[in-house]
Amino acid sequence: MDMDKVQIVIAMCIYISVVIGIGAYYAKRASQSSSHFLIGGRSLGPWVTAMAAEASDMSGWLLMGLPGVAYWSGMGEAFWTAIGLCIGTYLNWLFVAKRLRVYSHVAGDAITIPDFLSNRFKEDKKVIMIIAALFILVFFVIYAASCFVGVGKLFSMLFNTKYIYTMIIGALFVVSYTFVGGFLAESASDFLQGVIMFFALTIVVIFGIATAGGLFSMVDKAKAIPGFFDIFSMAQPKTLDGVQQVENSLPQFLEPIKLDWLFIISTLSWGLGYFGMPHILVKFMAINTSDNIKFSRRVATVWVIISLAAAVLIGMAGRVLYPDAFLTPSSSENIFILMSTNFFISILAGIVLAGILAAIISSADSYLLISASSISKNIYQGLFNKEADDKAVLRVTRLTLLAISLVAILIALDENSVIFRVVSFAWAGFGATFGPIILFSLFWERTTRAGAIAGMIAGGATVFIWKLLLNPLGGIFSIYELLPAFLISCIAIVVASILSEGPSEEVKKEFRFVKNYKAV
User: Fold this and answer.
1) CATH class of the structural domain 3-515
2) pTM, 2 dp
3) How far, in Å, are 8, 63, 137, 441 from residue 345 at the CA level?
């Protein structure tokens, strides 16, 4: 290993040591109870809540997936995706955060999303809880796998090592400190990781634009690629067997693809996903007081807008500076790594690249923790062993975390996975399964238990049916599966709620209390 790579390793090891230190610091508090392990005893401050929510949200997708899309096909898809995410972030904090914080506490002091939904409808037979837990398990395993793919790509490109080894090593690191430190370690390290991600994105985009000759020069060069710098078009690389063709050192492009209104609405619908993301919603539930939500919302919104803009610009600057460096959609997701190692001295490059590691870790730990809690708290204790004490639940949580991690590692063995596409499917799954029922539970008193069950099943099932069976047909079925699945879930909730017996007086009384709560 040459000296440059040694310096990069040193910088990353310093970062990893800090994260391990955070896990060790919180280990004792995490072991106090399952509530402390899973939700930190509702003790998060406003800064940590904001940064932890957004860092766990974006993952390696922000530093690898989104720049990769912009590098491969230009501004079109990346721009509308980013706009949808910005809008969704703000609306989620504005409408959901405060009421969910209050309602989850009032409804039996729920510490997971399945807990909240089950308690909200006062169900005796825990059908909602089990359905919610199973969907969480399925989609978060896919999410965690995408994170492990990201860490594998990062280290295999940096050190020219075999992907499978670096992926497994990175996965084991994430699992180990989440296993020890729980939610508080995850949230505190997510705050640090959010700061590092923000720093990495801004410094790379600034140097990228400067190296390209300034913003106007970069834009002029991008416009030379058909459809590349047009929010209503998508550049179309000329490929053979999935690899872009190069002639005279210039990558070849076909005529750009015009984006119609259906594609734009479909891409904007990414924002709908926020209402159903358990790893974000649980941060709302964990803040120390609902009065701090407004400040957290401002911090989170600014962070997201700047970070998403930087990620898109990095991909565009990368194509201008290194037009033929990456010739497949999968390899294009390495553009941030290439720019970082080329722009900065090794020790600084290591700090910047720790931003990718931070993004991956901040999401993977959330995914693993919530997946494990859905099994231990909602299925093991909620269904099979209702008399289980807190230590038993905590023990099962940690064992489940290990099992889930193993499955995610097996899924991540394919190094040709495109992070953006893997994430988009899991995002749609959560958004359609939980988004509608969270909104209806918080804001429509007439929502019933039958409506909740129908909505979750309809939304989750539609994502699979649309993606696997209808999407290949093309035409209107090419729309992003989140939008039709979200709408179908809403319809199912309304119809099933109207057709079923209305909620009990106890449920309505609790709903009205939360609605009129002065902090909301």
Assistant:
1) mainly alpha
2) 0.84
3) 9, 20, 42, 52
